[in-house]
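Table S2 (text version). Query chain:
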Amino acid sequence: MIGFLRVRDIDLRNRKAEWAGIVIGRKDLWGLGLGEEAARLMLDHLFFQIGVHRVYGYWLESHYASIRMAEKLGFRQEGILRDSVFKNGEFINVAVLSVLSSEYINV
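Corresponding structure-token output:
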């Protein structure tokens, strides 16, 4: 195993799910597109097999690479949760992003 991806709170009644994170554990494999490939497989499954309409998630505002990957998949920012996380002695903003099935870009 080189990493993992997590989805939680799959709500079939409201047809939504929460993106809960992705980790590629080996630094020598970072930047090769493996995370994006795994994310596409997960989103394909949620949208086309399960029938989810909306996937949303929370990203630390300072995690530019993760947010950029989400945007490449069609996620759009909905808002900022100000000073939402206390990390390394300071409060950090959290970005809320989501993608609808009609906006999902599977290229």
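Notes on Table S2: The beta strands are 3-11, 16-24, 54-60, 76-87, 90-100. The chain has two helices and five strands.
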